[in-house]
Amino acid sequence: MRKLVDQVARDPRLLAPVREAIVALEPALLRLPPVAPRFFSQHDHAGRRLVERVAERSFKYNDEFAGDFHGFHSGVRSAFQSLNEAAVEDESPFAEALRGLEAQWEEQDALEAPGRQVAVDAMYFAEARDAEAAQIAGR
Asked: What is the pTM assigned to this prediction?
């Protein structure tokens, strides 16, 4: 388990606060193998999925000082702190933490969707104007 945490902690693709959060989760992860030993062999193990999804989601952010990253990081930090304080008798606390984070991320994505659509629409409009201008200039 320590090898996994160490490997994640050295991944340069992750922002430093994400690496630190995963390292901070190590106490809870170390309590997992005796009660849920299939962590490494079971691809859909809740503890493993939690670490993977947090890492994957963090790739969305380029700047640890951006406001949207702060929301992501505070949710992760809170979930990980709760796991470190919880009694780990099986993988269910990790599954619950992942469900909670996924729900937060879905809400965030829903809030961001209209802004993305506006940007896409503006791009299509600019491309159409460019094509019209090229057509007019070519006559």
From this structure: 0.73
